[in-house]
């Protein structure tokens, strides 16, 4: 694997290999000394043109646990604020000897541009580009689902899968037959898009629920069911996973719904909707959460919530991705 830019063209075998390697990385993270010497002498640059807390820190922790040197680059306070182009920034990083670049950018397609132009001869990881994709978020979400539904050491799966004890828990498993309902700001969500492509590849069934104004044009051609009624969807689908999305007000230049109160009433996972879910339904959110708008405190803090697990699992997934890109067999996943 040369780069990780998208989940859309990631094969099932490639996705499962990343998830399985992440299982090994999770074991490392549970050790007293959370370190592997794998990337000693390598330099990973976190090139962030957008604000981020979870993703940047997660990639930094992942690289350091693999013994890489890390350079954190923020557009604010850098030459980018003086008008420096992406090309010049990339060539500067190349001159400094960057071995891998993790990039978050406000423009869709920026990571692919960086990967295809040859401005820097290093593996590129897309940490979120505009409203396009966020592949490692989708991978950590799938990893979290797989662990919750199938366990890590064997046993019986959740509501739709079979037994998993014969092959060592979740290792080697896809998400065949799992039902996932993704609710909220689909229009602006790169998380929703990456999850859709990956979940389809892994065999899950996806339903998007949102106000009509927050459903992208052309979404009816995507491999997902579209609904505008959350209560009806939850009653009919009886999902294994409910994923709530953040309302991305920073990307909105118009009123997409009348007010926050109406949004919470129609499309928020409030206490009543949460209590009506099956007791083994997983509740997810990529964060940061707007409590009381997208999700109630009771749902976010419940035993069914995986919000903090997603943060923990993000480090393991990103360790797996950096391992494959910087030291693993790059050809194995092409």
UniProtKB/TrEMBL annotation:
GO terms for molecular function: amino acid binding; aspartate carbamoyltransferase activity. This is Aspartate carbamoyltransferase. The lineage of its organism: Bacteria, Bacillati, Actinomycetota, Actinomycetes, Micrococcales. Catalyzes the condensation of carbamoyl phosphate and aspartate to form carbamoyl aspartate and inorganic phosphate, the committed step in the de novo pyrimidine nucleotide biosynthesis pathway. L-aspartate binds at residues 82, 190, 246. Keywords: Pyrimidine biosynthesis, Transferase. Belongs to the aspartate/ornithine carbamoyltransferase superfamily. ATCase family. It catalyses: carbamoyl phosphate + L-aspartate = N-carbamoyl-L-aspartate + phosphate + H(+). Heterododecamer (2C3:3R2) of six catalytic PyrB chains organized as two trimers (C3), and six regulatory PyrI chains organized as three dimers (R2). One of its GO terms (biological process) is amino acid metabolic process. It comes from Subtercola lobariae. Residues 152-170 have a biased composition (Gly residues). The keyword Transmembrane does not apply. Coiled coil: none annotated. Residues 151-171 are annotated as: Disordered. Gene3D superfamilies: Aspartate/ornithine carbamoyltransferase. Pathway: Pyrimidine metabolism; UMP biosynthesis via de novo pathway; (S)-dihydroorotate from bicarbonate: step 2/3. Carbamoyl phosphate binds at residues 54-55, 104, 134, 137, 287-288. Its EC number is 2.1.3.2. Residues 2-146 form the Aspartate/ornithine carbamoyltransferase carbamoyl-P binding domain. Residues 176-325 form the Aspartate/ornithine carbamoyltransferase Asp/Orn-binding domain. GO terms for cellular component: cytosol.
